[in-house]
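Most newcomers find our protein records easier to grasp once they have seen one. A learned vocabulary of local backbone shapes supplies the integers on the structure line. An example says more than a description, so a record of this kind follows:
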Amino acid sequence: MEPMELSEQELLRRESMNKLRELGIEPYPAAAYPVTATAAGIREKYTPESTEFQDIRIAGRIMSRRIMGSAAFFELQDHTGRIQVYIRRDDICPEGDPTLYNTVFKKLLDIGDIVGIRGFAFVTNMGELSVHCREFTVLSKSLRPLPIVKEKDGQVFDAFSDPEQRYRMRYLDLIVNPHIKETFLKRAKIIATMRRFFDEHGYVEVETPVLQPIPGGAAARPFITHHNSLDTDLYLRIATELYLKRLIVGGFEGVYEFGKNFRNEGMDRTHNPEFTCMELYVAYKDYRWMMEFTEQLLETVARELHDGETRMRVGDREIDFRAPFRRVTMRDAILEKTGFDIAGKTEEELRAACRELGVETDETMGKGKLIDAIFGERCEADLVQPTFVTDYPIEMSPLSKRHRDDSTLTERFELFVNGKELCNAYSELNDPIDQLERFQEQLRLSEKGDDEAMFIDMDFVRALEYGMPTCSGLGIGIDRLTMYMTDRSSIQDVLFFPQMRPEKKAVRDEPTLYTAAGIPEEWVPVLQKMGYVTVASLGGLAPNKLWGDLCGFNKKNKLGLKNPTAEEVSGWVSAAASGSASTSASAE
């Protein structure tokens, strides 16, 4: 007997797989299948006069089928879309042996199986562009049934739409919801467009370490791992910044990296602990130049993705990425929204202002985080159209150069779109003495209890002591940019495999709880196999239907069990409904 943890459908599919092998058909052949056409290619180029599609090979999944005796239609889905296939017994069984059609195609193949089709394109009497199959090859047997998504009159039924399942099983999501693929194709186009833009400016794409002895370049809590051979702790990087600036010290004019960063922080609709950030550093530039460069870059991306248009829908708002973007200083943004002027204020004055404004704080927060809290609570949400917020207080920017006109500020901007930060950029700090002092201030914050304060990276300070030219740096969150450019409200929608909480295992009652309800022990695994994993789940069932289902399951799977009587099954249901058997909850 097959192991009981498999569903009835899974058992039948495994049985079909074995029967294919008995017929000499390998369900997972090793040989390459030479595909010469795609569903989209046929739809775009086919004409009745063309001879281009008279002998083609196309491959994909069977997604639906209609069998009509000695002929059938089925829908084939490849990476470009779906197309109808027409198959006849006499075409694929020319020797008179009907096994390939009657047994293999009709009985041993299932929805979800991958097949190769050789034939020709044509239009049916009903006007449907199709492929007439002359030969088919089994390429992969699907051992699990696909969710059946039904569509009628433009309405979708039984859609595979549960986000928990879609994100956890993205491979299945892409099969049954092929439109999801468009988001990821656009994501790839965003990155390709940015890469081309940088390359055209002469900047070099590089790679820097993911495992770092010091997690630098941002204020964030890192992930820690251990290197066995070196017997030392290392950190998954929280930013690529400090290594990229080392390359500017080394003589590169401009370098960029699309890097995976890791921050051991919370997860929500706009944050994932593993995310992609593009960072760019260009020698002999400042943050004012970088603002103009960023406008040009994002306008180029928007036009590339939206057929030359810079305006797009993001939720219920229209966002326009046409340059130039609005510019406002951090001081003016806060003053405009709160009436409070942060200039020259002490930590205690800022803390008092937070209390007055109803902004939540804690004792570990220094001036920088207090200002950031006011700005985040009172200003960010209103920055809908692309807006550069500039000239941050020095306490907020330990890696940014002091402002040329005001030593209490830094030459830094962040770009806000739809109420969220999208870009962060500086005129980079290249004074090694000033940098060391800023690092030491971060150390004091760490000792005060700020677990996101930066570490001191003495090797980076040493690199600056050899001399780094005037430089501007830019960081753009690729995940958030993709959310805006594709109108997705959750970061999980733009990540193939977002981080998920551990999958919860279904709670099953112990066999003793079933036997306490009068159910024979040998029928317990059968009931659980049929989905009744707790005794309580039997309580609301129709006894006669359950009895019929049990007898049918026993026969179909050749279990050889003695069928219960209808009266016995009725007793099980009554016992479950009355709660005479202990439930798993009460047992705990």
The CA atoms of residues 167 and 493 lie 8 Å apart. The chain has 20 helices and 20 strands.
